[in-house]
Specification:
The chain is α/β, with parallel strands linked by helices. Helices cover 33% and strands 17% of the residues. The protein has seven helices and ten strands. It has a seven-stranded parallel sheet with strand order 1-10-9-6-2-3-5. Helix 7 links the parallel strand 9 and strand 10. It is globular.
């Protein structure tokens, strides 16, 4: 389903409401949340509502979506740091509730296996909230990926390495990522893909108008039975 909202605020409120409704109905739900500029307001609204309505997240399980290889969790710009600041910290989420990629691990393949096992053990993701890269990536599932893949280490697309600089205060070498695979995202019981702003208009047009293929990984989400493409008017401008 594609839904277009008047602005970023309305889009974020819709996504936040979906998270809040799920958490109210399933107290041990498994959430897979993306880092990035796009979901920042959604998380702010989730935190605000959870505090106002005293909604407990104490049994919610969080899985990581992706991380920059070699960028530790304490470094501003890492996906973990972002989520810690925006949602884990403000909601008082315990470390035991969070299953995130350790992108500093010496054996990254083993780290992928560890996360794959966790996702199986928790019986899959209830809700995955993802953004879309300017190249159509989801997590670090870059153009050309195997859509049947699970967690894997990836050489980042040039676009991702360049655009990713926006998260860091100083120039940072970003060459590899570790990510859930497209198959794991597609197996989530519900997927929300959010896009806002004029800079996303061209890739949203490709996502929704081109034949679905791994050239634009986000396109796969349009085939998910509970997949939502949530846009503001600027991101939807070329449809
Ligand atoms: P953004 O990143 O939310 O910062 O635009 C999206 C993405 O690369 O998936």
């Amino acid at each position: 389903m594609v839904a277009t909202f008047k602005n970023y605020q309305d889009l974020s409120a819709f996504a936040a409401n979906k998270i809040i409704r799920l958490v109210k109905h399933k107290k041990n739900a498994v959430l897979c949340l993306a880092a990035g500029d796009t979901p920042a307001l959604t998380y702010h609204l989730v935190v605000e509502t959870a505090k106002r309505e005293a909604i407990s997240f104490s049994e919610i399980i969080f899985t990581g979506l992706d991380e920059w290889v070699g960028i530790g969790p304490d470094i501003p710009g890492s996906c973990y740091h972002f989520l810690q600041q925006k949602i884990f910290g403000p909601l008082g989420i315990k470390k035991t509730q969070i299953h995130f990629f350790n992108s500093m691990a010496t054996d990254l393949q083993q780290e992928c296996n560890r996360i794959n096992t966790i996702i199986q053990t928790v019986r899959g993701i209830d809700l995955a909230l993802v953004g879309i890269g300017l190249n159509g990536h989801v997590g670090f599932n870059e153009p050309g990926i195997d859509p049947a893949g699970n967690a894997h280490v990836v050489t980042l697309d040039e676009v991702t390495s360049i655009v990713g600089q926006k998260y860091f205060k100083t120039n940072t070498a970003l060459s590899k990522g570790i990510t859930l695979g497209m198959a794991q995202i597609m197996q989530a019981r519900e997927v929300l893909l959010l896009a806002n702003g004029a800079k996303k208009a061209a890739i949203i047009r490709r996502t929704l108008k081109e034949d679905i293929s791994n050239a634009v990984p986000a396109g796969f989400i349009t085939t998910h039975p509970n997949g939502w493409i949530l846009l503001d008017e600027e991101a939807a401008a070329e449809l």
